[in-house]
Structures are given as structure tokens and as C-alpha cells.
Amino acid sequence: MKHYIGADNPMRGRFEVTAAYRARHFAWRCEGGVGTITLNRPERKNPLTFDSYAELCQLFEALRRSTDVKALVVAGAGGNFCSGGDVHEIIGPLTKMSMPEQLEFTRMTGDLVKTMRNCPQPIIGAIDGICAGAGAMMALACDMRFGTAGTKTAFLFTRVGLAGADMGACALLPRVIGQGRASELLFTGRVMAAQEGLDWGFFNALHDAADLLPKAQALAGELAAGPTFAHGMTKTMLQQEWAMTIEQAVEAEAQAQAICMQTKDFQRAYEAFAAKQKPVFAGD
Fold it and tell me: Does domain 27-224 have CATH number 3.40.50.1820?
């Protein structure tokens, strides 16, 4: 990955993740501040491998300091999102590993969720077709999710003799759809139909398959044109306040707003309002 820290960027440690970056294990493009990650092994329903896990973690970690990527879309190629860990390239080898080696792997898979949650850009999942296992966890780690009528989401871990507690599922899923519904899905491993996911709040909207990615990218474009520093602060507070009391959360949000009030975007918004114009944000 190319890191760009030039004279026109006085902030040390910040860099651009540009369209020039060439991903090895998925497709990547960045246009108009919107980065799109496409899992692209359509002949296998886009399963994850050891290498794709590692590269995705690296990219999301790099995006924490990106100056040019303002919002993200995660999608899958060929009418499916992701079928989970590759049976032959991951599951098979795992059965032959020692427990310390297996723990190293499970920590890496959890790192994918953590890096997705910790990068400041809003992430929109464009989820069509099969969305299973680790793929379902990638979808869950997104900030918003669009699906189609044909989307089938399943947390399959108990179906292969593992706990439903995988990659943070027992923490994240109840917060999105509720404890009872999450318990049902995680114990049974059954498929959650698209309409069910919409009714339960897992999906923000359902779209026709042909419109799914354009709709997700359109929303990402709207967010990319907004006050991106403030969006990053919003995502941070949504994450951190899970472990706070109400009193702590109110104080933390007071501090967050005071920080945002120091941004030029806050001043731009006021000046545009006074001039009866639409603000043009720059993310600073």
C-alpha cells in the first residue's frame, strides 16, 4: 500500500489510500471520496481466506488515518456477498492446527471486525445473496446494511460444531436485533430471510439487485460530502458508549461536540445558514 505524506499534508501520520492502491485478494476502487471493497471470488460465493482476512485488516487499519477516503461500501461479486471462511483453504487446515495456532487465527478474524469498527469512515454493506458465517459478521460490522429480497443471512457457527460466539457476534448482534432474536439465530444457525432482517432492523432497506450497489454508493457519496470529521466522531461515540452509563455518555458527548465545534466545517455550516446557502463541507 502506498502511503503519501507530502508537503501539502502537514499532519504527520496521515496519508492517502488512493485509487492507485491495488488489492491482491479483493477488488478496491476509490472515487469521489467513496471507497468500494468488493469480495470477488464469485465462483465460490466470495469466501474469505487467510490472505484476504489479513489484507482486509491491513486496509481498514490504514483507513483510520486516510485523508482521501470519506465513506466506504463493502459488497460481493456475482450476486452473493460472502459465504464465510473458505472450507478448503481455512476450515480444512484449521482441523490440523494446534490450539495456539487456532487461537492466532480466531484473533485475526476478530481483528477484521475491530478494524472495521475502529476506522472512522461510515461503512455501508451492499449485501446480496448468500451472507453467511464470517460474511455475516462482516455485514454486522458495517454501520448500515442494504439487502435485496434474495439476501440470506446466517450465523452458521453452531452448524459446524463451534460456538455462536465468533468475531464478536454475541456482543454485536443483540445490539442490532435484540437479545432474543440474536439468541435464536446464534443457537440455531438458521437463515434469516431478507424481509425478516428488515423487520428486525438488521437491514436499513431492501433494494432490487440491480440497484443495490448504486444505492449504497449514493448514500456513501452523500456521507462523503458531509462533515466527515463529525461523522468519525459519531462512529466513535456509537462504539464507545456501549460501555458507558448515561451520565458518562452525556459527558462524553458534551466533549465530542466541543471538539467538533472547533472544526472549520462547523463554521462553514453557520456561515452557509446565515447566507441561506447549502454548506460545502471539507472534513476539517
Answer: no
